[in-house]
Design goal:
The chain is globular, with a radius of gyration of 17 Å. It has a 7-stranded mixed β-sheet with strand order 3-2-1-4-5-7-6, sandwiched between helices. β1, α3 and β2 form a beta-alpha-beta unit. The chain is of the alpha/beta class. The protein has 9 helices and 7 strands, in the order ααβαβαβαβαβαβααβ. The structure holds S-adenosylmethionine.
Length: 232
């Protein structure tokens, strides 16, 4: 079996990959812009993220499951000295992210249009300064708990990839996932919860923007929580 297929099977993905067909403009971004900014990934070959950006960037940040790409575009535009890698599997989300990148002429974004775990497996240790996991799919049913992105195996990998003093941000509005996150991350030896007062998890960090999912959560009466963890 080819290596790429083996890896795909090892990281079984349970979410949605495709929705409605893309509109014409978005399809052309998919066909033309995406191949130019996709992280080149060959199964079994390490990726040096610094080499993806020209001119050289002072740090690399990674967003896992960027959804419509609002936060990705905001962070990349506000931090032109950072190389920003966004991972997303859902086709309409990728297309929306591409339209933000195109409209704002962002030169410092690269996209991994696949399961983030295949990229995490190819990156070298301590190459990232920040990792964003904003409103990950909650998989609230107990029998689906092993599908949650926050799990001991992924946390070990994220800990390997973050440099010392780097930051992992996890936002969630789902009570089960909030509890799950607090049960798993602060007890991990590599992570320290950066919270001193309730405002630290009740208010979105000042440098972040509301995502589409956060807006929907608030409209539905759910309460977003914002967790920041420092890599020890
Ligand atoms: C609930 S949505 C939140 C989207 C966005 N972060 C926001 O706040 O609007 C979760 C997103 O994560 C993506 N996702 C889930 N698992 C993923 C994975 N393993 N790799 C990349 N993206 C993933 C899904 O496709 C979905 O778009």
């Amino acid at each position: 079996m080819p290596e790429a297929e083996k890896q795909r099977q090892a990281f079984q993905f349970y979410g949605r990959r495709k929705g409605r067909p893309l509109r014409k403009g978005r399809q052309s971004l998919f066909d033309e812009l995406l191949p130019r900014i996709t992280v080149p990934l060959n199964a079994g070959v390490a990726v040096d993220p610094a080499s993806l950006f020209e001119p050289t960037k002072r740090a690399i940040w990674l967003e896992i499951g960027f959804g419509g790409g609002e936060h990705l575009a905001h962070q990349a535009a506000s931090n032109p000295d950072v190389g920003y890698i966004g991972c997303e599997v859902f086709e309409s989300g990728i297309a929306s992210g591409l339209s933000h990148i195109d409209e704002r002429s962002l030169e410092n974004v690269r996209i991994h249009p696949e399961d983030a775990r295949t990229l995490l497996a190819a990156l070298p240790p301590q190459c990232l300064e920040r990792i964003f996991l904003l409103f990950p799919d909650p998989w609230p049913k107990r029998r689906h708990a092993q599908r949650r992105f926050v799990n001991p195996g992924n946390l070990d990998r994220l800990a390997d990839l973050l440099r010392e003093d780097g930051e992992l941000r996890i936002f969630s509005d789902d009570p089960t996932y909030i509890e799950w996150t607090l049960q798993h991350v602060p007890v991990h030896p590599a992570f320290q919860w950066l919270a001193e007062a309730p405002g630290d998890w009740q208010e979105r960090p000042a440098d972040a923007v509301e995502t589409r999912y956060e807006k929907k959560a608030r409209e539905a009466g759910r309460v977003p929580h914002f967790f920041r963890f420092r890599r020890r």
